[in-house]
Amino acid sequence: MPFGRKGGAGLTERLDVRMAPAEKEQLCVMARAAGLAVAELVRLRALGRPVLSRTDATTIRELRRLGGLLKKVHTVSGGLQPADGRDAQLAASRDRQAGGAVGRQRMIVKKVPTAKHAPAKSKAHNVRALADYIAGPNAGGAGEKVEHRAALNLLNLDHDAQVQEMIDLAELAKRSPQPVQHWIMSWREGEQPTRVQADEAVKMFLAEMGLAAHQVIYALHRDTDNWHLHLAVNRVHPDTEKVVTVNNRFDHEIAHRAIARIEHAQGWQSEDHALYRVQPDRQIERSPAPLERERRPSTLARDFEERVGERSAERDAIEEGAPIIRAARSWHEMHEALAREGTPRRRAGRSPPGDPSVVERSSDVLSDGACRSSRR
């Protein structure tokens, strides 16, 4: 970038330097070793500034990759964990509580949002607080017990070093205030997943989300009779060092699809109103929208229609926009469908309820149940 900005001033001036061919070749070798352009190397050396090699980052990424492979071997071989038969005991307990029947369990998934009104804290503080709550030495809240701790795609094996490794990668995402997300997968009261099932569920969840190579620290918590799996997922890719946005921020859609796969693979029964279901041919299909009570425009909108003799925007939104919003799987898909129907849209704000040029907010158009479905 000849006109890039370094410090307070842009690099707008040019200086030609004559040298022997052997000297030029020597500079090229030095620049390649440092991972810099020749011009950048010459400028830094001439001004007496330190030359920071960019190949260190490449080495770190390779170490992370090798660490992930070692972690895979450690997990597959059982590592240092004794074969105490606890998984078999948990499975037997689960079958007893289910009365010997298979497929009565249900799972739910949710993403814990970041607090909007909490005091601003550093990215490192937030990551450490989340990881310590999930899998730290004093993990869990009041009345919770941690039954199983693990991590994926991290080089280190002890908790503190794993957290610091996740912080180091998360801090590379300068524009993302919180690249580490907190997800929870829960089982219904009385159901007990085993350690093996918890590990499998995490891997299936990450694979469906497109985050299989990303760092994650997770733990299986038990709160009285409820078991739930907490995950701290770092959305910064360990190789590209860029933040991955899942499904254009419609990540709940993919999360529910992952739950459908986990339920099918492990024998859990789907929720009555699950967004996705696995068909007999193992293909995943979105469940049809449930039938809902008829929604009518508000009194103000009906008064407007009687006064001017035209359909109100609220009626158009209910009859034409609501089915589109309810069926959309991403913002892009919703916007395209609304554009094809010629339905105007704008940011939520104040406006007359009967104004024909304004479409009401989706929360005003859909019933409460439909709104919840569209946000999943």
CATH architecture of the largest domain: 2-Layer Sandwich
- The best one-word shape is extended
Number of E-type strands: 9
Give the structural class: alpha+beta
* Helix share bin: 40-55%
The CATH topology of the largest domain is what? BirA Bifunctional Protein, domain 2
The CA-CA distance between the termini, in Å, is 43 Å
Reading side by side through the largest sheet, how are the strands ordered? 3-5-7-6-4
Q: What is the beta-strand fraction? A: 5-15%
Largest sheet descriptor: 5 strands, antiparallel
Broad CATH class of the largest domain: Alpha Beta
How many domains comprise the coordinates? 2
> What is the count of DSSP helices, taking H or I runs of 4+ residues?
13
- Overall mean pLDDT: 76
Secondary-structure element pattern, one letter each: EEHHHHEHEHEHEEHEEHHHHH
Query: Spans with pLDDT under 50 lasting ≥5 residues?
Result: 80-105, 347-376
Tell me the Rg in angstroms: 27 Å
